[in-house]
């Protein structure tokens, strides 16, 4: 496996970061998770745009243009020759001294991994996931804007631990006001009649790349998409529910807090969305 790290491509064993890297010491950095489908990178431009937005938010100068980053990602893909896989793109504040201040970090650390992806077992795409609403609330906007993908994922990790300790596959997270935000690493959608509803990003949902794709294809399936406030009661009473994310793609939700959603199995419209999304991943992408 060839990994890009700070200007070089090297073997996995030699791809190392300093223990003084502020990405490790403080979670000071940003990242993206991107999919490769059929030797093409899915929505690379959108992922890079979000990476640069996240970097700007934490006042981190990546020191490369989006075009240069594109070439680095594509070259990493070429060197690993994966037909399908997963790209992890990370930019940290870089190595510095012990102490929070980024002033001691002259150069960001950039690395790109292209690897195979472990995904949910296929049966979950048929039977759906059981979610649990957890007590860990989504990061609040006044502390750390949940719309960006920073290396501070403890909020989501704590939610995930809570769900799995109770035997659930995924956590459903509320924002501080009690509105539904998202799952620990996926966006949430509801279907009610011909309406497709997802929590607005300013309510604690990450502006997911998969989420955006689903909002785009909804009208083709006769659905009117909207973003807004969602309560737990809206979730419990939805006809169908599903999650979206780069890793999970589109995955049905069969149950939330012991309430079956709709028929308690993958909904018919969800299945059509899964098919339509798969077609999109085959049709689109930046070749390498
Ligand atoms: N919410 C959060 C908090 C996420 O981290 C999503 C929603 C979905 O966004 P995208 O852009 O992927 O549609 C994410 C993305 C992993 C993994 O390793 C997690 C994500 C993406 C890729 C891999 O579990 N989360």
- H/E series: EEHEEHHEEHEHEEEEHEHEEEHE
Number of domains: 2
Average of per-residue pLDDT values: 97
Question: Oligomeric state of the chains?
Answer: single chain
Q: What are the segments in which pLDDT stays under 50 over at least 5 consecutive residues? A: none
Radius of gyration, whole Å: 19 Å
Q: Briefly, what CATH class of the largest domain?
A: Alpha Beta
Q: What name does the CATH topology of the largest domain carry? A: D-amino Acid Aminotransferase, Chain A, domain 2
Which features would summarize this protein structure in a list?
single chain, 288 residues, alpha+beta, D-amino Acid Aminotransferase, Chain A, domain 1, D-amino Acid Aminotransferase, Chain A, domain 2, 2 domains, 9-stranded mixed β-sheet, 7-stranded antiparallel β-sheet, binds 3-[O-phosphonopyridoxyl]--amino-benzoic acid
């Amino acid at each position: 496996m060839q990994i890009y790290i700070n200007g070089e491509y090297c073997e996995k064993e030699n791809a190392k970061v300093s223990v003084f890297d502020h990405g490790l010491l403080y979670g000071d950095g940003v990242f993206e998770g991107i999919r490769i489908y059929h030797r093409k990178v899915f929505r690379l431009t959108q992922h890079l745009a979000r990476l640069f937005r996240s970097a700007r938010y934490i006042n981190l100068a990546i020191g490369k243009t989006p075009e240069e980053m594109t070439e680095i990602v594509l070259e990493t893909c070429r060197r690993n020759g994966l037909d399908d896989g997963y790209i992890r793109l990370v930019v940290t504040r870089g190595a510095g001294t012990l102490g929070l201040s980024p002033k001691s970090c002259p150069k960001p650390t950039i690395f790109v991994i292209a690897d195979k992806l472990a995904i949910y077992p296929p049966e979950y795409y048929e039977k759906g996931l059981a979610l649990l609403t957890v007590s860990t609330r989504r990061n609040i906007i006044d502390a750390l804007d949940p719309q960006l993908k920073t290396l501070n994922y403890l909020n989501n990790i704590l939610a995930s631990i809570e769900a799995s300790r109770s035997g659930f596959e995924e956590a459903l997270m509320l924002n501080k006001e009690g509105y539904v935000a998202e799952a620990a690493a996926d966006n949430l959608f509801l279907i009610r009649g011909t309406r497709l509803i997802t929590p607005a990003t300013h309510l604690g949902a990450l502006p997911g790349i998969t989420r955006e794709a689903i909002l785009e294809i909804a009208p083709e399936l006769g659905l009117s998409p909207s973003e807004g406030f969602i309560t737990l009661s809206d979730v419990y009473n939805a006809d169908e529910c599903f999650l979206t994310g780069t890793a999970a793609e589109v995955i049905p939700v069969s149950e939330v807090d012991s309430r079956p959603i709709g028929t308690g199995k993958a909904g018919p419209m969800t299945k059509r969305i899964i098919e339509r999304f798969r077609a999109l991943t085959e049709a689109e992408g930046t070749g390498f």
